[in-house]
Amino acid sequence: MLREYKACNQNRYLSTHHERDKDTGYDNRGARLYDSEIGRFLGVDALAGMYAPFSPYNYVLGNPISNTDPDGRSVDTDIVDKDGVLIARVDDSTPDHVAVVDGSASKIQQKLANGDVTTEQLISGAKIKTTATNIRAAAQVLYRTENNGGDYEEASLVEGGVISTGERGAQESATVPGRSGVNGVSIHSHGLNATEDPGGGVRSYSALKPSLTGQKPAGEADQDAFPNFLQNIIVGRLGNASKTSSGISQPKLGAAFYGRGEVKPQGTLTKSAMQQILKNRIKLEAGF
């Protein structure tokens, strides 16, 4: 004999397996209540300060298809190679982070598939640990330097995920805006152009060579300023120019990353690698 069975109570665990409140009809997402009928949270995201460009009422940057953090809008870490090619995206609730590792993306992905290495090991051993916001700000500083002809330095400060634009300086100087502090990231450019000296040598500037104490007036050298910031980025040429039979050869444009108080770069990214990393983030936010 066939019998009809009915559940005693309607299932309350609906959207992404979060409990729906019987009285209000809202979903309990842990940090906030969610109204599934209008597709909005009923409170401001606790992580809103980390994502100034986005609405604080969005769920996972407004894209629940590609982003699945149930407590807010924290974005995963992108692991990339030196060319900016995406190797893996790790759900570690580390907002906006980018880890640049040695080796090619295809070979590292094969190692991940074989279990020869873990994403945690890759992030731990990354030569550059920064954020997409910092890379975006660095790319903007480089663009402004190119746009002014390449002889004048530009600067920005990133603090709390917010980019502040500094004042353009005279040659070989620029002003980082705001205050320095333990969480700030300083970004400035070095000159992009090279000239031939009367003696036959070449005068050029490099992002790999911060100005040292004693090379500039007291307190104005890169070495004097670097201890005031969590991370320091210099954009410009990734090396010095050289003289060839056909003229002057210039290295590629890019960015060099320095730790607090360090004058030796942790690593570099070319301009094209920076652009690729930012494309990765655009695809993430667009749901691809």
Overview of the structural elements:
- With 288 residues, the protein is α+β, with helices and mostly antiparallel strands.
- The chain has 3 domains: 1-74, no CATH class; 77-126, no CATH class; 131-270, no CATH class.
- The protein contains 5 helices and 19 strands.
- The strands form 6 sheets. The chain has a 6-stranded mixed sheet. A 4-stranded mixed sheet has the order 5-4-6-7. The chain has a 3-stranded antiparallel sheet with strand order 1-2-3, with no helix packed on it.
- Residues 68-73 have low confidence and may be disordered.
- InterPro entries: Rhs_assc_core, T6SS_VgrG/RHS.
Question: What are its keywords?
Answer:
six-stranded mixed β-sheet; four-stranded mixed β-sheet; 18% helix; 26% strand; 288 residues; alpha+beta
